[in-house]
Amino acid sequence: MLKLARSPLLCFSRGFARPHARVMSVRSPSTTTKRKMVQIGTHNGTFHCDEALGCYLLQKTDRFKDSELVRSRDQEVLKDLDIVIDVGGVYDPKLERYDHHQRGFTEVFGHGFVTKLSSAGLVYKHYGKEIVAAALGQPLDSPAVEITWLAVYKYFMEAVDGIDNGINQYESDKPARYVSNTNLSSRVGNLNPPWNGDQSEEASNAQFQKAMQLTGHEFTEALEYYSSSWLPARALVQEALEGRHKVDPSGQIIKLPVAGCPWKEHLAQLEEEQKLGDAIKFCLYEDTRAHTWRVQTVPVEPGSFRSRKPLPKAWMGLRDKELDAESGISGCVFVHASGFIGGNKTYEGTLEMAKQGLALP
Hints:
Blueprint: E1 2-5, E2 23-25, E3 39-42, H1 49-58, E4 68-71, H2 75-78, E5 83-85, E6 91-92, E7 97-98, E8 108-110, E9 113-116, H3 119-136, H4 143-164, H5 184-189, H6 201-242, H7 244-247, E10 253-255, H8 264-273, E11 282-287, E12 292-297, H9 320-327, E13 332-335, E14 341-344, H10 347-359
Helix pairs in contact: 1-3, 1-6, 3-4, 4-6
């Protein structure tokens, strides 16, 4: 059994730094010194992304910020610890036990998500909102905390749950078209000591610390992005929706006040909340670097390559004067070969491209 001292509390709003922890080796329960610190337990041996990330997240909470980490599969060691994740065969939040390997375990995150949780997902479900609230500097019941908490689960945490539980990303019996070994779970797996290397607990413990650093760093970046960049964009998309009839009477074209903000996920969510269906077909925004304007189609769903209404087929792949002649609109720059995006030198030109795009096949 090994004990690991906790790493410093990390929060990007208070100055993030990579965690570093000293390692203490404890050979048996009988030689363990009298416990003073709060202790987190997980299994020793081969580690995975979910328990490394779960331990990192726990040490970002008020209760476990000064905790030790104990790695063992010995139930006599684990039974007296303050919290245990990914080992023990029990899921009971009242007992602070968060395993997901036992028969009959079916817990999901809720809120429309159906992927079975790993130990990281369990920790995030019960403690993630506290972590998000601390990062945002807002109370737990803040709408911003709720939105960010759900976004980080959808776009970061759920993949960890799915991979750890062996759930296919796509519902298909066909073999994968390519191999991906660059996801976070694979990179954590690669940190385990090699089969022909040092197999000692000390070596495994040192590598587990690296896994916590890796998963924690990427979680921190995801949380910072969704709270500091992604979330503020929601208000801009909301304003664009409210002003869509001023852009065009059809109400099917929106105009964003700035370029580069993430708008597709917010548009889909706001349309659903406001029961608008798929009314919006085009989004206009200025490309400030090129000093031109863009007209972009709305995908059938965020992440999809299919558009609700592509730009006219006759324009696809054309540029400049050739596109001007075909469309009858001056100042055209291009239309992508797939018709999902086009450009014009002026706002008025892109608006006209969008209007014609509504009418033409």
